[in-house]
Design goal:
2 domains; 12 strands; Isopropylmalate Dehydrogenase; alpha/beta; 17% strand; 12 helices; single chain; 344 residues; twelve-stranded mixed sheet
């Protein structure tokens, strides 16, 4: 890998704010070579409409790092011209091609079959619109699930980070009524194993401390408010503690996000979406990021949607994308160090 890692940034839904956010990357310095995947004409038109002084340059892996104000672009053409704020199902395959190309660049030489180093050290994703992809006849529940399927990864973990917090989830986008049945011993154990391994591998924390939430109010109140803590969560924690993991819990979720408790951990594991992400988004809204753990590659993302109402206005906040890029660079550095560090 060259001294400066190459980071792929997919520009996402062409009618949303993704193209504008990617153009804003040219105005900041990063300790990496950034390459935006998208339609070059779309990016040029967006820059002209917003009066952004950005020079677009064709991506070449062997080129020098781009100067400030210049953005490397890996051109992938739209199926149909895009208009800010107006979704078009005809461009859904284009959106997925961006992901596939970035993934391919991250996986060159994966599995030890080839000696060629990956083209990209990580991928960062601007937002896509799930509805329009489904309207095009492609079943799509999100980046996380799509990348897991494409890489043949049986289980991945969604983690959001921001505001000084890292919050991972056992279950993600489920109706609340379906959550208890999905919080199984296997799901809790697999999630904790992935979270523990990735905190070591991609964050460089050798002995991560994980705070684990209960499912019920007051963590079940000794069984009076639910028995999942006693019958499902606690036995898994005891098993993994015996293997050396540093786990605190099951903890009542209403007090877990207080400073005295948070100071005892490096990350939090919540049982369901709103249990963990309400606190995180309060602490970091607009500057939090999404990280997919368990993949054979590094993938980070913004924590917001396509914001069609803001597309083309010049008012979209690039803060989350900036943080996602910075986090991807840091994780790539930690991963490279972990791979090179002599084993004990």
């Amino acid at each position: 890998m060259p001294a400066l890692p190459a980071i792929a940034v997919t520009s996402g839904e062409p009618a949303g704010i993704g193209p504008e956010l990617c153009l804003r990357l040219a105005g900041r310095r990063f300790d990496a070579r950034l390459v935006v995947l998208g339609d070059r004409d779309l990016l040029a038109a967006c820059a002209a409409a917003l009066d952004l002084n950005v020079t677009l340059r064709d991506w070449r892996p062997d080129a020098e790092a781009a100067a400030p104000g210049t953005l490397d672009v890996l051109h992938l053409p739209l199926a149909q011209p895009a208009q800010a704020g107006r979704l078009d199902p005809a461009n859904a395959p284009y959106v997925l091609r961006l992901l596939d190309r970035a993934l391919a660049g991250c996986r060159a030489g994966a599995g030890g079959v080839q000696t060629e180093a990956p083209e990209f050290a990580a991928m960062v994703t601007a937002p896509v619109h799930k509805g329009v992809i489904n309207a095009a006849g492609v079943p799509f529940t999100g980046h996380t699930e799509y990348l897991a399927e494409r890489t043949g990864t049986p289980r991945v973990v969604m983690m959001l980070a921001g505001g000084g917090l890292r919050v991972a989830l056992v279950t993600t986008h489920l109706p609340l009524k379906d959550v208890p049945a999905a919080v199984t011993p296997q799901a809790v154990e697999q999630t904790l194993r992935i979270l523990h391994a990735e905190m070591r591998r991609k964050y460089g924390i050798d002995a991560p401390r994980i705070l684990v939430a209960g499912l019920n109010p007051h963590a079940g109140e000794d069984g009076y408010l639910g028995r999942e803590e006693i019958e499902v969560i606690a036995p898994v924690l005891e098993k993994l503690r015996a293997e050396g993991m540093r786990l605190l819990g099951p903890l009542p979720a209403d007090t877990m996000f207080t400073q005295p408790v948070l100071a005892q951990g490096d990350c939090v594991l919540a049982m369901y979406h709103d249990q963990g992400l309400t606190a995180l988004k309060y602490a970091s809204f607009g500057h939090g990021i999404n990280v997919t753990l368990g993949l054979p590659i590094i993938r980070t993302s913004v924590d917001h949607g396509t914001a069609l109402d803001l597309a083309g206005s010049g008012r979209a906040d690039p803060g989350s994308l900036f943080v996602a890029v910075e986090q991807a660079i840091e994780m790539a550095s930690k991963l490279a160090y972990h791979q090179e560090k002599p084993q004990a």
